[in-house]
Amino acid sequence: MFPRDMIAHLGSIAASLMFIWAVFQQYFPYQFRSYIEKYSQRLVSFVYPYIQITFNEFTGERLMRSEAYSAIENYLSSTSSLQAKRLKADIVKNNQSLVLSMDDHEEVADEFRGVKLWWASGKHIAKTQSFSLYPVTDEKRFYKLTFHKRHRDIIVGPYLKHVLKEGRAIKVRNRQRKLYTNNGSMWSHVVFEHPATFQTLAIEPDKKKEIMEDLTTFSKAEEFYSRIGRAWKRGYLLYGPPGTGKSTMIAAMANLLGYDIYDLELTAVKDNTELRKLLIETSSKSIIVIEDIDCSLDLTGQRKKKNEKEEQEDMKDPRQKLTKEDHKISQVTLSGLLNFIDGLWSACGGERLIVFTTNFVEKLDPALIRKGRMDKHIELSYCGFEAFKVLAKNYQKLESHNLYSRIQELLAEARMTPAEVAEHLMPKTASGDPETCLESLIQALESAKEEARLKAEKEAEDKELSGQEETTEIQVLVDKNVRDENSVH
Ligand SMILES: Nc1ncnc2c1ncn2[C@@H]1O[C@H](COP(=O)(O)OP(=O)(O)OP(=O)(O)O)[C@@H](O)[C@H]1O
């Protein structure tokens, strides 16, 4: 048959079918029609061995965007970019990366534990009822999953769980992360774009490895925490002198795990109720940070006494009362803070890290930092040789130098924070000669060493002097006692 005849033939078949369908719709009663449709579907499903699941973009009465749909969209992004012919592109992470997803009416195949299945994207278009010169169309997108019915258990169970988990993880990796700060009981945020990583962090390699392993183990331990019946959270206490990298480490932690940061300013929190409200509003996959915890809260309970005393003073002088009311004082207590760490709501819906930093660990109440609350205590200290090598590599791209041995000797004797060392390694000119920087560091280390020597000498002198004074005082007392005894006899 000629192609032209064939097309004509097909056309007449289609026309006859449409005619039959029109007659069927018009003359058959509604109940009879639905009866036929029902049984024809059963017949098709009996003959057709595949199962289809549809995931609509919007669900519920309020038509919220379905979490499953967006997880599937993310999950399919890599498969789609390899298989689909028509793709949609979206920009994420502050215009820095591109995410591809398949366009409407595309199909891609996937495989799970040897089972093959297919994902198709589609959309329903419905015209809105309201009259308008520019009719608005309502597009409802969906994904349709097709698989053989003998694989029902594996697909409905483990496969879909895997898709949702992977999809959510991709979403977390692609999202723009945020740095939240509280102004009173309200969080406000900016985009978090700190470049610190564990690679650029100058600490001893073993310590670095241990912390990174601890963090990644925690982030993957959802099942473990639920099995042992503990909230999925972990407390870190970072302590050490100023400029040793406590804040930098928090940024590196957030970058490693892809978490948001909630920088909690305790002094701006009015009371325990406000603290609880702030915490409930934090999201999963976040680090809640309280910097300089010793300065944020009077952990010895003296605050209450101080406030009472202040109130009495206010009564005496009403002018002072005005200024005190203007400047609100936080009433967050140690027990409030412990509730914050242990409370049921501290781990609502997902993982959280709680990080405290302090320059004076000895000032903290042991109850606050006991294991189980602050699970890991990390000391960040003065710059050692290994930490220096990381800084030299970061700042000057140096792997080694003949001045290194001198620097190693000096670092063992002089105390200098990584922040100070970094300052010397910072290129001062565009050409940035590394040798000049290293020499400047050596000079600074020599001065620091000399200062430390003089200080130690002075301390020893003072000690000796106070020792001598003590001996003289004791001698005077002994002489006096002897005199007294003699006078009695
Ligand atoms: N261990 C480190 N590794 C890399 N850079 C560091 C390190 N320590 C300090 N720095 C550098 O010094 C600067 C100050 O460090 P950072 O603010 O992290 O110190 P800190 O211990 O939090 O200080 P503070 O107690 O005063 O808040 C940072 O900008 C960082 O570049």
What does this structure look like?
With 489 residues, the protein is an alpha/beta fold. The protein has 3 domains: 25-174, no CATH class; 178-297 and 332-379, 3-Layer(aba) Sandwich (Rossmann fold); 385-470, no CATH class. It is 52% helix and 19% strand. It has 17 helices and 15 strands. The chain has helices at residues 3-27, 30-47, 67-83, 152-174, 205-219, 222-228, 246-257, 272-280, 293-296, 302-316, 318-326, 334-342, 366-369, 385-396, 404-413, 418-425, 434-488, and strands spanning 50-56, 58-59, 64-65, 87-92, 97-102, 107-112, 115-127, 137-148, 178-183, 186-191, 233-239, 260-263, 286-290, 352-358, 376-379. The strands form 4 sheets. A 7-stranded mixed β-sheet has the order 10-9-12-13-14-11-15. A hairpin with a 2-residue loop joins strand 6 and strand 7 (115-127). Helix 3 (67-83) packs across helix 4, helix 14 (385-396) runs parallel beside helix 16 (418-425) and helix 15 (404-413) packs parallel to helix 17. The longest helix is centred in the C-terminal third of the chain and has 55 residues, at 434-488. The protein starts with a helix and ends with a helix. The model is unreliable at 300-311 and 313-328 (pLDDT under 50). Adenosine-5'-triphosphate binds next to helix 7 and helix 16.
